Amino acid sequence: MKLILLCTIAGVLAAGLLALGVWQLERRVWKLDLIQKIDQRVGAPLVDVPPPSAWPSINASNDAYRHVRASGEWLADRDTRVQAVTALGGGYWLMTPLRTDAGFVVLVNRGFVAAENKAAVPVPQGRAEVTGLLRVTEPKGGFLRSNDPAAERWFSRDIAAIAQARGLTDVAPYFIDAAAVPGQLLPVGGLTVISLPNSHLVYAITWFVLAAMVIGFAVRLLRRD
């Protein structure tokens, strides 16, 4: 009776581990497809940023890293500095709202600025045409810390929170990571890191190995009997 119970438990456990392995393989197929789509978006011709009619359907899977452009007027008195760590070190992203020619506002990540250089950043003036990659809002903070608008401590590019803190309306639910501007030293654009972790095959192999170990244990018990 005890042997039957142990084998039953082993069978259930092995089945669960095999299911997890299959699920990871399915996730790997999904991730590879997503990576391919993102590569295609980044290299695609420029398109205009999505208008308000398209905002309800904007999501990371279908829209992140689209190659976009926007034209309009800078609202330069409403910059937001968001903490960042890049290949250039620690500092912040400089988020500046752009009132587009269509009337709505889109936040533009103009680029990275090291903390010691914040006083040297030129204030944008007048009209601009911005090109870059579309990024979806990053709500609820980052670096395991929550945004604190009242104290001007920002750890993620939370569009809704930034818009409220800056008194902005008709704001797109995405922002633009601006491309590098020739001759512009600060802020440093074009630092978008496109890196999607894809360890699903390793996880799948791990689950399958554990399942094999459980099955092997059960077989040994049966042979002892």
Structure description:
Helix content is 35%, strand content 25%. The chain has helices spanning 2-43, 60-63, 159-166, 200-224; strands at 47-48, 67-74, 80-86, 89-100, 105-114, 127-136, 171-178. The longest helix has 42 residues, at 2-43. The protein is of the alpha+beta class and 225 residues long. The mean pLDDT is 86. A five-stranded mixed barrel has the order 2-4-5-7-6.
Shape: elongated
Give the end-to-end Cα distance, rounded to a whole number of Å: 11 Å
Output the helix-strand order: HEHEEEEEHEH
Describe the main β-sheet briefly: 5 strands, mixed, barrel
Strand order of the largest sheet: 2-4-5-7-6
The strand count comes to 7
Can you give the mean pLDDT? 86
Task: Describe the structure concisely.
The radius of gyration is 24 Å and the shape is elongated. It starts with a helix and ends with a helix.
